## 1
Amino acid sequence: MFIPVYLLIQWLNKIGMPTFFRMAASAGLLTFLAIWLGGDHSMIRRPGESISAPLVVAAGLIMFLPTSRLVGAVQDAINGFPVTAAGRFVSTGMSFLGLVIGIASAVNAISLFGGPILDIEQTRFDLPSPLTFSVFMLAATVTFAITLHTKLVKLGWLVLITCSALVTYHLYTYLVGVDSGRANTALAALIIGMLSTYVAYRLHAPQAVFSIPALTFLLPGLSFFRGMYLLTVETNVVWGIQSMISAVSIVIAMAAGVTLGNYLMQYLLQRFAVPRNVPAEAAE
């Protein structure tokens, strides 16, 4: 299902289509395929097994969500660059608008042909065990890093950073409870920010090479999808805004945690680390 969407994205990139139209077309195709193939008369549906179209769409939205750009915008705002932050917020907002238009258009097109109806309540589900969650999120992180052409030697460090963040996330959730708010997200992002800054310093690589893929398991794709669907298709403004606020609060916690971790590790490196390309005796 994701292969046609990926090919569409590559073709739109090749012809130089702006991000807004790429987002709209990709989200529309993904939503259309998820609803159509997840229906009762789908050719790929096995008897006794259900395919949750909302979950498929929400998972696919992780490929399209400009979360890294939004995190960067929040980081610029935190670091005191309001003009750059404002530009990124506008660009990110247009990307989200493209996703909204694509999802709404696909749902309306399906309804015109008498296709199945998308049940938004299917987005409510019980979370898997921490081990299952961690294994699949690690696989998603590595896959995402490979698509960014990350070198093989850096993938091992990326897995280590992500594992540390996952352990922190689940340990805090276990100790405090599921009603821990956004503290578990912020704490995991803090670990990602610190470790990615340190590894980037040691390997002479950009910090974003490690921090952006490592944040994959924190992305609020499901909350964004619920909010966009409720606002555009079901026109439930109250619940839609609530879901969007929840998603944005997660992104802000991610950005704040990564930024704080970056600053803390930079201070520790400047305070205690031996300068690169300088012998230890000279540093003393």
Note: The mean pLDDT is 80.
## 2
Amino acid sequence: MSIRTISAGLVVAMLSGGAASAATIVQNGSFEDVAGLAGGGTNRGGYGVYDAIPGWTRGDGAGIELQNNATLGTHDAQDGNWYVELDSDSNSSMYQDITFASAGSYLLSFFYSPRTATQNDNGIGYSLGDKVDGLIDAVYQSPATWTQVTKSFTVDAGEVLRLSFFAGGLSNSLGGFVDNVSIAPVPLPGSLLLLGGALAGSGAFASRRRKKAA
């Protein structure tokens, strides 16, 4: 086997592996899984405060407040029907532990929306182990909008990192919203995709030439 053919095989393997693992590794990142939950959080127009919801655990504070599209009349979920507030009766936090089976570059993404028009009232902090940390804060303006936050980072295979969100504004039962949380491998750049196709084509051409020579 020629070096060119080996290179083509490696690139094709990388491309197929990257495509297969592109899905998010966050459990219940859009908070649509409400299985086993009781109370207002599962009712249209209601809300509920929980110590845990599928995929997420309360860190401190009053709990994880689950709202839906009809709870306030001002906000619809960014994805699906449900979203989370982390200042129910007091500032709270939530987390889940993420296991990275493969080394490489990843992208953390989530959507944020402020609830009130009060300065410093809607802050949401976030962290992922020692890889990512930050705080986003804004004031509500009608109509409500969602802002996407993205952070890139690299990990080693087998790392386990804690993904956390916490209220970073006034502790007054009104705060920022979080929805559509995801972590996924960073896609290969288009130039590498083109290189993979070119190498694969070159390998096939070389193979045909060897067969003719034989």
Note: The radius of gyration is 22 Å.
## 3
Amino acid sequence: MVRKYARYFKGRPRSAPSEREEDEPRLCVEGLAVLLNEPIGTKTGEILVFEEGAFAAHFASNSRTEMWLSHDSTKVICSTNSGLEFANTESGLAFRFPLDNKRYADTIKQMVASGKQAAVSVGITRTKERTEMVGRHKVILIESAELREASLVAAGACTQAFARLIDANQSPSLRDSVKSVPFKIDSGMHNAKTQRETNATRIESLMQRLDRLERRQRKRDTLDQANRMQTIKVEKLQEQARAKLA
């Protein structure tokens, strides 16, 4: 049947997409995966600096890189084989991927929109590096690295790395988007939020430390008071003993 009527469709232009299809938003997540030429403190206490072109060899080899949730290899959102793209920019290593994974789309949309899990962290293999002393600090300068995966997380080592939601139909290319005002505004808002949370954590830590010091001081005061009371009792007993002997 298809062959019978195929000649009627040959050469005819395909119907244009409806206005509804054109207006349908194409949600994507984009942001910064890691900053370049900026110090990053790790949980192990290392200070890392990714140099310009640190991932050039990795991308030149067309190696597969995946986007995960919370560094969980069982929760793969997408990969460079299914829409995930990266771009080296002046701001750092930028990324973008479409929200077309039905399993995680709603979850990711909620996480990023609410800011609860809108930070980004990367899993790398360092292939070439050198160490330099900057003041009293040992800094590891990463010249080349493999980018195994990037993850959406609640908080990452690179505090400026973030994710945001966009409509790709209304946005420029990834490289141009990073230069745009909306991107810079979202980046600034993320940095302000991260700084507030960092300050709140530091204040909470200081309050806990003060509380511990106060408890120790109260314990010392109680012990000192007990010692004074004991001394007074001993002195009274001594006075009574001397009075009897007199």
Note: Residues 181-245 form the longest helix (65 residues).
